[in-house]
Design goal:
Length: 441
């Protein structure tokens, strides 16, 4: 880790007696970073603030937080702590990340810190890039994340981006640095975990230094993205003013610039949550712009609405129920109809409000979406397919409810559950083998 230390000492922008904040989880990567910074602290007389977030999902979290607090007291470090007790978003990882960085931002301002460091490493970058390639993203999104981000009041620095997780674990063992293992990182229900367990090992077997190739890929994409951003900025204010997109001027532009403009608008709305927007959502906006209807509306995640009125497209928020949505199921999904779909560890319920699935038979990740023309499902206990619309009619759902009723699909868009209405052939009895339980309430 000598090169990391030298970079922090001479090339990172850290000055003598600076205040630096660290996002420390207690895992091997963040504890390795903390150990390096403690050594740097004595050389540069730094003020170090350890920021720890307890996500409130594991029993061991309290013990880990207590250890870090005592460790910081012993080492002469400031310790700032936050526990998340309530989640209400449609994507656990999304909301946890937002709350975590809001906390970091608050602490940086309180201590007047010029730098926030996180322990993101090369494996994290590989996982992020691969997930976004599969999910669909922007040029900037495909680049993963940057080593250095300049914010308004401070810099976010990820000095370990050139190292693998194994290198950081080896560092901790060699230097007798205590760390904690979050066992939820091995659960297959989370998308990132599946990439970590099954995809990355293949790449590393092909090339042990593949993380360096991904870093170069990331940096190259970011260069191209920055250039295209400059070109887009030349025309952005001409086609988008006061929250309104002029479609007549917009349609004169090259499609690449058009796409950049749409994502730029969405980034202003979603901020750090932009990654919940997929290619499907962007296609809905383009269909709205290029469609023949003079007036129409599309709803996006987090109650964002896009409204077409002749040659103008408006972006705003809507408290009403959305009639078009598609959301990946990670932990808990808050649906536009006021209901929830939650990934639970156990349930005795055998009604249509709970389904048990095997990841060996359905392709992850799972999604919940609204109905589409031609939707069919293989209903449990029946031969062949049945139209979803026929099921809605049998259940006497009114049109408004049909338009927003949740439909759960796998990654191949195969319908595997109509929550509260029908189970598919993929549903398992409690005595059968399954590793996924979804509850609708």
């Amino acid at each position: 880790m000598e090169e990391i230390y030298e970079y922090l000492l001479k090339g990172s922008g850290i000055n003598y007696r600076d205040t630096v904040c660290l996002g420390i989880s207690g895992g091997p990567d963040s504890m390795a970073l903390l150990d390096i910074i403690i050594k740097l602290k004595s050389e540069l007389n730094l003020i170090v603030v350890v920021c720890h977030v307890n996500h409130g999902l594991r029993e061991e979290s309290e013990e880990e937080a207590d250890y870090l607090k005592k460790f910081c007291l012993k080492e002469g470090l400031h310790f700032e702590y936050m526990k998340i007790s309530n989640y209400g978003d449609d994507n656990f990882h999304n909301e946890a990340r937002t709350m975590r960085y809001n906390f970091f931002d608050k602490i940086c301002k309180e201590y007047n810190s010029s730098m926030l460091m996180t322990a993101h490493h090369g494996d994290d970058l590989m996982e992020t890039i691969l997930m976004r390639i599969v999910r669909g993203s922007t040029l900037k999104g495909y680049s993963g994340f940057s080593k250095r981000i300049v914010k308004k009041d401070y810099v976010i620095l990820r000095p370990l981006i050139t190292k693998t997780k194994k290198e950081l674990e080896d560092y901790c063992k060699l230097n007798k640095v205590k760390y904690f293992v979050d066992r939820s990182n091995m659960k297959d229900v989370y998308t990132r975990n599946r990439y970590r367990k099954y995809v990355l090992p293949f790449f590393k077997e092909e090339d042990p230094m593949v993380h360096e190739k991904f870093l170069k890929f990331s940096e190259t994409l970011m260069e191209y993205n920055n250039y295209i951003d400059k070109e887009m900025n030349l025309v952005f204010n001409r086609v988008f003013k006061n929250g309104i997109l002029d479609t007549s001027k917009f349609q004169e532009l090259d499609h690449l610039i058009q796409t950049k403009i749409i994502y730029n608008i969405l980034e202003k709305i979603y901020g750090d949550d932009l990654f919940i927007i997929t290619n499907t959502h962007v296609k809905l906006i383009f269909d709205l712009i290029n469609g023949s209807k003079a007036q129409a509306i599309v709803h996006l995640p987090n109650n964002v609405k896009v409204i077409k009125s002749y040659s103008e497209i408006g972006f705003g928020f809507d408290d009403e129920q959305a009639d078009i949505y598609e959301i990946e199921i990670n932990s808990v999904v808050n649906l536009p109809n006021g209901k929830n779909i939650e990934l639970v560890s156990n349930s005795d319920d055998t009604s249509n409000y709970v389904t048990r699935l095997s990841s060996k038979e359905v392709l992850l990740p799972l999604h919940v979406r609204t109905r589409r023309n031609g939707d069919k499902m293989e209903v449990k206990g029946m031969d062949g397919h049945k139209k979803v619309n026929d099921i809605f009619i049998e259940k006497k759902l009114i049109t408004k409810d049909r338009n927003i009723w949740p439909i759960v699909c796998d990654a191949n868009n195969i319908i595997i559950w109509l929550p509260g209405l029908k189970k598919s052939k993929f549903d398992k009895e409690s005595k059968e083998e399954y590793d996924i339980i979804l509850k609708y309430y």
